[in-house]
């Protein structure tokens, strides 16, 4: 097989992640004679990547050879590839600084070569490296650059990896829904190119995010899929990571035996990659949790030590996130060993550390409170518990919320507040049942059983402790099992007449329990049925939805199984009010436009006191569901007049002026069609945002939006980048490239600064716009492409047409629809609102809350000419916030020096004149001269053009740009009113 064919097949195998197949093909290609120096380097780079896909660092290093020397004459694109792979190898060997230096060189050479794919890959590898060293801000910057470049190059495999990295970064920032969205998009991209190893990685990341969202069943399914895919087509270190994640998830779900098997398999995986040691540290961390549950304290201690050692080998590269987990476990271990003073010390140090992640800081706080209780410091424990409650966000930290409720229940029990204790412990059980965390639920059942036993409620105590015992036995949790059995033995042989739960004076506590459960609809429904069951002394309580003849959907049930719940709900919907049936039913709002009901069922008709209590609790439940819905809805724009003005109709715009409202109206009118659009406006006005808004409102919104800047491209480069090229069609064309038009198929191509497109390339763009087909460089047959084009320019295209530097036919073809974005000086009423918007963003991003803009600074902003438009205003506000102290005021002294000159004058008419730029002055003069000449010529175009020294075509173009076309109708003679003008 010829070398070229071997290389093509190997490249396809690399795209699919099939490193072994690619290596076999590339070794054969390298052994064949006749390859040029550049072709040999390309084959070696590809072979090194094939070995890296198999975690074989030695073979990859041998294939790549030594780093290139500066004096070697190598094409920049190939140099970029060499430096990038050397960077990957350095990082894999645990040398991040060296790796970053190599990758920086790779990026520089890629930019010299104007190679979009090479630029994107360098940015991606840099982002990956910075993530390992913990610099999330730089990671986000590289992700954005990588995504843009790889979009242009059409490299879907690496684009999927970029989106996966973005998802991980978003998850670490707590933006879990956005993270899962990015990961799903990554999965779709990877499936498009059949990159099984990338899908495996993405599924593993999805599993971790699902676990952070406490969707443990989904996390388990994703983790199992990740392991399966890694075994089929992944890398050794990828398999190790997938098994570690599976082990962590199954521990949370209480399947310790399966977790231990997965974790031991992970330890058996061998990979020379340095960051595999961080995974090893995580595996020992999870094994320590298992031994802690089983009461194997010495083994737990050894695992924690080995976890610390693994992180220590990683050095500064170790992610601090994992090390905080070790600190929390060490504090928990000390507590289980009966060393409360040591536990309190470790937990307090962890909770008070400035860089401790919130979740671990709160867990440490709860351990510290347990240690205080174990030491008999009840008052100090209560004070600390109150502080933790004020910091805890139940909806975002459900598992920690469950632990908090259990601990608060214990504190209430010690204080003699048995009813409050009962409700807190019961809600803790509900939280962990919903999350599927069996061990944590068993701990709460144990505390409930103790509380009921102490109160003499023998039947309840026996039931709760039996549930706890069953779970502890299945987990082999020996210390907890002994405690549960001891509590069972301690239950009085004869009921003492004591009671725990709902009493006539306990309704207030029940209401508080339901209100506390209004964190999520699922928890509220579960707590609601439990409360109704107990408050009404019913056999069953159900919350369900039902609309006319539609099926009944059970939301939650207590005291019966699912089939029994459906039967009771159906009977309740058929029963007539006052029929005497042992059923109570009440409407409690709507669930997505479907009525929601609560029902209680008993053996005999309920009395009036029970009916009143049922209705009271249903009222609270209805309000609770409304509260949940309100929390899930975005803020209404009508909340406040100022917020209405600051919420942009377009991202980055306030649209408080008539001029911008016209732009918005034009965009809305474009929805549903595929017309080509030309956006004009000065630099910095936001033309790209308008283009994105057009795409977002079009039928193509689910497909790609791909920007391409025409400014920096030479004729040859623009031709290749736009329309693609065939391998070998010119020097340096080492592989087929689809070009941005074919990459954006089905979506929107945004041609920014289209006025700078080389004249020789313009006919090919015109052909595409007219016929929907492109001719890649080196091809002989055109290819049909379905892409919408939106173009933008800050240039005077009419002038360029007149100067023969831009084709007139292309100009008209582009400007089927024209949208002009006015400069900021023509919409000054937006300056205060934009300033406030940018101030809010800057204070959040820079961590400077309370910074304000002084009235004097706003006056200067209003008077300034803003030659850089909205972009300049945003930069100025960000700069001023950076210079201002926290809680301080931005005064004129903190603004840029340009605000101290003539433009900073008070907004008088003279000051306004000074603030006008040359472009605006020229535009006004052109308008006045053309309108005056038209009037003198009574609307005669030929005569007007001659008087102004223009051609008819040039005059038409200027009139169109200046918006004079519509005014001619009133000047024209009646006999010529049918005249139309080009547009």
Protein architecture, described:
With 983 residues, the protein is an alpha/beta fold. Among the domains are: 522-614, GAF domain (Beta-Lactamase), CATH 3.30.450; 658-813, Rossmann fold, CATH 3.40.50; 825-916, Helicase, Ruva Protein, domain 3 (Orthogonal Bundle); 919-976, Arc Repressor Mutant, subunit A, CATH 1.10.10. Helices cover 63% and strands 6% of the residues. The chain is built from 45 helices and 13 strands. The protein has a five-stranded parallel β-sheet with strand order 6-7-10-5-11. The chain has a four-stranded antiparallel β-sheet with strand order 2-1-4-3. The chain has a two-stranded antiparallel sheet with strand order 8-9. A hairpin with a 7-residue loop joins β1 and β2. α16 (297-314) packs antiparallel against α17. The chain is globular, with a radius of gyration of 35 Å.
